[in-house]
Automatic annotation (TrEMBL):
Record-linked SMART domains: AAA
Keyword tags: ATP-binding, Nucleotide-binding, Transport
CDD domains: ABC_DR_subfamily_A
Record protein name field: ABC transporter ATP-binding protein
Length: 240
């Protein structure tokens, strides 16, 4: 469903994404882990076309990632939520529904507003929303068109505990519906229970790409007592 070949994104002399190649099969849920500055957001932004890649190929559902056909297939939840200042919460959902031609959108939008406890904020303007509320609106907008592929960049940051719990359930539901999901995070425990596979990015390179089951086997054979410890072990700098 997603195929990335030799992706490079250079800022000046620095390769923020340094020749990475990977695939996500249809229905696969993959966690993209890495320390600060590893290149997770840059990879995501290149995939969704917000940043121009330096080189490489990105194919979504058989289409070049910049084509309209590819864009119809996916939603992206950015690390920093962007909302329109002068649209209300409900108008955001209406806008997405009209842009993506979502049938019977009102009922679906209401379910999302209820799930994320935004119903009483539905008439608030974007500019008056807190960071967490913006994040919730961003997630609702991404879910409304019912895309096949979802790219979540640090989705839990800024959410309250209830919204985190709901988002975990949303992940499980999406997985059961056979959606393909790439979710970037610093926190392995936020994806441990739903991811089929974990990719570890460090200094723009993929240094680990394995199933949760295999990582757990590796964990037992090492000094690590949790996957978090194993992740820290794999990503630690030489000399530390
Ligand atoms: N606009 C930019 N100009 C120059 N360098 C950048 C720019 N954006 C990111 N970088 C650099 O690219 C590298 C990768 O950054 P990126 O934001 O993709 O990392 P990340 O893994 O998402 O980090 P975090 O977990 O902190 O969000 C970092 O070294 C960062 O300093």
């Amino acid at each position: 469903m997603l195929s990335i070949t030799n992706l490079v994104k250079r800022y000046g002399k620095q390769n923020a994404v340094d020749d990475i190649t990977f695939e996500l099969g249809g229905g696969e849920v993959v966690g993209l882990l890495g320390p600060n500055g590893a290149g997770k957001s840059t990879t995501m932004k290149c995939i969704v076309g917000l940043l121009r890649k330096t080189s490489g190929e990105i194919i979504i559902g058989g289409h070049d990632h910049l084509s309209v056909a590819a864009k119809r297939l996916f939603s992206y939840i950015p690390e920093t939520p962007y909302v329109y200042d002068l649209l209300t919460v409900r108008e955001h959902l209406q806008f997405i529904a009209q842009a993506y031609d979502v049938k019977d959108w009102k009922g679906k939008a209401q379910d999302l507003l209820d799930l994320y406890e935004l119903d009483d904020k539905a008439d608030k303007l974007g500019r008056d929303l807190s960071k967490g509320m913006r994040q919730k609106v961003s997630i609702c907008c991404a879910l409304l068109p019912d895309p096949q592929v979802l790219f979540f960049d640090e989705p839990m940051i800024g959410l309250d505990p209830k919204a985190i719990k709901n988002t975990r359930q949303v992940f499980r539901d999406l997985k059961n519906q056979g959606k393909t999901i790439l979710v970037s995070t610093h926190l392995i425990d936020s994806v441990e229970s739903i991811a089929d596979r974990i990719m570890i990015l460090k200094s723009g390179k993929i240094i680990g790409n394995d199933t949760i089951a295999n990582l757990k086997t590796q964990m037992m054979q090492s000094e690590a007592s949790t996957l978090e410890d194993l992740f820290l072990e794999l990503t630690k700098d030489e000399g530390n």
